[in-house]
Specification:
seven-stranded parallel β-sheet, about 15% strand, alpha/beta, two-stranded parallel ribbon, 9 strands, about 260 residues
Length: about 260
């Protein structure tokens, strides 16, 4: 039986990955900050699907949290076959309205943690000749809009480059780029969503099913919905200056987690 490690597992896309993978018979390592919610999630998934659900309380905004997950990913006696780097958050406010401390915390979670955890996982996977990593980015990666979008653009570029470098090793890497998903993400960030059209909202469970299918097909970037695929096609043809104005009117950012 294979094992998947999911960061940010207790809510949103991370919780949807946990439900889907548990239903498919994968053992899980659930990573989040809230020990109580982790325990409740692990118990529920174990009781419902009969899988083993290990919990690891870790804050990926801290050195200690990242190091703890790195250590678990490097455990060769209990290997992780699939890593889902999902943990993330958004800051409310435009550039220079957000404190530098909050900006740097976002970069630690979205960039440093993703780099270090992907590296820890793939080093072990490459030695076994198999494994997979899904790095949750966002369609915000393709729109010039603040630190959040910039950090997600890094996730996409890094994942594509790492996938190319590990080609032929048996290890697959994919950047998942969803749009607006009905989760706790915006509420926790204090962001309003009244100005977001209904058609732009995605279901987390359907999103995860499409993402796992794309990983199995060997895609390195997944935009798992026809509406957003079409929208991103338009984005490619739109001048960058105009895109910035459109994203400002649509909302602070596209929030996936």
């Amino acid at each position: 039986m294979t094992t998947a490690l999911i960061t940010g597992s207790t809510a949103g896309i991370g919780a949807a990955f946990a439900r889907r993978l548990a239903a498919q018979g994968h053992n899980l390592v659930l990573v989040a900050r809230d020990t109580k919610r982790l325990g409740e999630q692990a118990t529920e998934l174990h009781d419902r699907h009969g899988i083993e659900a290990e919990v690891l309380a870790a804050d990926l905004a801290t050195e200690e949290g990242i190091a703890a997950v790195e250590q678990r990913l490097g455990d060769r006696t209990h290997p992780v076959d699939l890593l889902v780097n999902n943990a993330g958050f958004g800051n409310k406010g435009r550039y220079l309205e957000v404190s530098m401390a909050d900006e740097l915390t976002m970069l630690k979670v979205h960039i440093e943690a993703v780099l270090r955890l992907t590296s820890a996982a793939t080093a072990s996977m490459r030695s076994r000749g198999r494994g997979g990593v899904i790095n949750v980015a966002s369609v915000a990666a393709f729109v010039p809009r603040g630190t959040y979008g910039a950090s997600k653009a890094w996730v996409v570029q890094f994942t594509q480059g790492a996938a190319r470098d590990l080609s032929g090793s048996g290890v697959r890497l994919m950047a998942l780029c969803p749009g607006f998903v009905r989760t706790e993400f915006h509420e926790r960030a204090g962001m309003g969503t009244d100005n977001i059209p209904g058609w732009m909202w995605l279901d987390a469970d359907k999103l995860v099913a499409a993402a796992l299918a794309d990983l199995a097909r060997g895609k390195t970037v997944s935009i798992p919905d026809p509406r957003y695929k079409a929208l991103m096609g338009v984005v490619k043809l739109t001048p960058r200056g105009l895109l910035g104005g459109v994203s400002s009117r649509t909302g602070r950012k596209y929030g996936p987690q």
